[in-house]
Amino acid sequence: MVLEPVEFSVLGPVRVLRSGSEVVLGGPQERALLALLLVRAGQPVPVSEIVEVLWGPRAPHSAVNVVRRHVGALRRLVEPGLPARAAGRWLARDAGGYRWAADDGSLDLLRFRRLREEAGRAAPSRAVALLTTALDLWRGPVAGGLSEEVRERAGFDVVDRERLAALREAADAALDAGAPDAVLARLREAAAAHPLDEPLWARLIHVLAAAGRRSEALDVYRAVSARLADELGIDPGAELRDAHRAVLLDPVPVSPVPAQLPHDLPTFTGREEELAEVLAPLKNLSGTLLITAIDGMAGIGKTTLAVHWAHRIAGRFPDGQLYADLRGFDPSGTAMSAGEAVRLFLDALGVPPEQVPHETQAQAALYRTLLSGRRMLVLLDNARDTDQVRPLLPGAPGCLAIVTSRRRLPSLVAAHGARTLTLRPLDADRARAFLARRLGAARLAGEERAVAEITELCAGLPLALACVAARVAAHPHFPLSAVAAELRAAHGSLDAFSRTDTAANVGAVFSWSLAAVSPGAARLFRLLGLHPGPDVSVPAAAALTGLPARSARRLLAELAGVHLASEHAPGRYALHDLLRAHAAELAEAELPLEEREAAVDRLYAYVLHTAHAADRILAPHADPMPPGPPPAGVAAEPLADDREALTWLTAEYPVLLAVLDAAARTSRDRLVCLLAWSLEPFFDRRGHWHDGMAAQRTALASAVRLSEPGWEARGLLALARAEGRLGLHDRSLPRLRRALELFTGLDDGIGQAETHRSLGWESEQQGDLRGALTHNQRALELFRAQDRPAARASVLNSVGWYHALLGQYRQALSHCFEALALLQDLGDRYGQASTWDSIAYAQHGLGRHPHALLGYHNALTLYRELGVPYLEASTLVRIGDTHLATGAPDEADKAWREALALLAGLGHPDAEEVRARLSGDTGRRDLA
User: Fold this and answer.
1) Residues 30-43: pLDDT tens digits?
2) Strand blocks (E) in 409-524
3) pLDDT tens across 136-147, in order?
4) What residues have CB less than 8 Å from 901, skipping those under 6 apart?
5) pTM (predicted TM-score)
6) What angle do the packed helices 462-474 and 428-439 form, to 10 degrees?
């Protein structure tokens, strides 16, 4: 039996909604009793206290019997079909009184308190969103409309104060997050309602100043000071005075700019002449574009010099610094494409995914347009060739582009006027200075011959010297002569990487360093050569080795201790390209094929099973393709909710794309398909539609190679959805029709249903709402036949939505309420948000504006909790429309302004429609 959804509101006038319709409550005493029980939800309220609240000291002798009658009336109101004397869902006898059994899903007060508690543990920007959502739940004083005597006896004013406390917390979080506009309107309103609340006025002053309204902040201080003197005869307190002083003394906050440079090495040395050479041209940078290309062999220190130089001059480029590792010589062969790099830069510059053009050439043009008039530094590290770099070069004067590559780039000089610098190995003196900077001059004293031999064996390469320095530093009592002897005796090869004598010497250094670690760490180093991504997490390393995570963490730390790996982010380790090549060479030469294949299988299984787990969280209604059991010793990451799923996917994103490519190159076609399809909801949530299209194209090619029509149909469906998101309907529609043919031939009802849903979305994009409804109705029939409640719930909402768009509002509500009950049972909060939005739209169409506002606020709460700003903005627009329809233009303006702030921050074209509403060009005429 599906329980009827019931919602209770006490943050404002007491209200009860059953299945979205407001229940008419009884008289004042009945409403007061309900309010008291709701405010004390989950706690027994003694009958004696109820009598005191309802009547005060003059209660009649019949008061207890009247309370019982009110209790019975309330039970019948909220559960009309409840048999006499049956235990109800909401109201129960408890400890000589009554207890209301609401939770934060049904009672706004408990939801408010939960959100406030979550905000106390969250980062500032997240706390602002949570507290804003919590404050949106308030429609006035607790149990507004009851007499002041009853409210006072019930202690409702204590709960009212929680609202002000939450607003002060929101203001503090907004200031910490650099988002003062998020709370400014609320603070103004609350301060006006509480003219003598000094902490509240102090925060208003801080927020005004942070929002760039310093003059107004000072005016507010003067006004509140005068009011305190006139009405209370006192001077401003310490908090107000501190706020005033902060406004007078603090600088105006500056908007954040991209700052993507990797960290600088504090031990940088040995390249003073080269640094002076690259710094000299900057004296005449004004009015010109400067491009400098630094080339040299692997391990020579190109990136170290470029990053150190960039940090030295970053202050000359106030509009920010962009950085990309182009992976031009990555041992896995997965160089970053120019399109991928330019999309990363567009994201850093604040361009929303939907505004990124489809073609790389157009993306590069947009990138250059955004840099026009700015002074920015762009560091393009590890470039393969000029073609990879060209789309990433700024076109504006006053910018600096630094390019590093193992190759000379003469066409960059010829076509773009780039300056070049070739790095060579450090000579003996500079190599010695390098070691002295790392180890201290005293450590080298008296061992000149050993130092000379070490620098010679390291071939003057900073990377090799750093490895030796790390080993020596770890053993302060070892004489350098012994270190030199060990190094001379070591054997290593980088022949697969380079045929030079220098490479052979460096290979010896690496092999010598590897001999200093435990057998487990040495095995891990070799296995890391099989990892296709740019870095590795501790759990991924555990999968590679087949060891527990704690053991893998210890082994990674051991490798980092001798500079064979670096922990560039907490829990994430990377190897220099030269070290990765050495690791791959050792793995192929020394590990049996079966061991290598088993390690790769474990790694890919870990990636696939965790991605699949994230997919089930982000899209519980989708048709799952179980990957089968993982190999022994491999387990997916334990992801609890949307936040954890998105965090893992975001951290592993470059690795996931690299695994897809590597698996495709080694004909692991089933894994390619399953991984690409598992990533589909993440691509959609994050707007990575270009990467998504590339991944699904790879998956379709793998599916075709499998020669299995079902897999091909799924590949067609996934690629069509990605293409549709990018507006490539001329490609997506034929693929969807072909997928439907294949699914129909296979009698795959679920596949047919999913394809009909996508065809419905395509119909909506073309303005064919009736076609969209027909496709979704067919999908609903198929999902019902397949007993798929999650998918059925999702498509029920879609059917309801299209009914609403066609003006068939009652049919819309019927489908959407059925969907909502299912989604609540399934715990699908994203689906619930979408369905509440559909319900509210239909209620608005029927003229039930209070019901519409309630539905929209439920959707808004969930979208904010889930972090979906575009849908949050869309819901705010419709809230504004509904307020306008009720004759509340001020409330409409407030909602539209919040929506505009979100859309403007996303750079979304819908912002223009909202501006038109605010200006009165549309909306006020058409919607009123």
Assistant:
1) 889 888 988 888 88
2) 419-422
3) 888 889 888 888
4) 181, 182
5) 0.60
6) 40
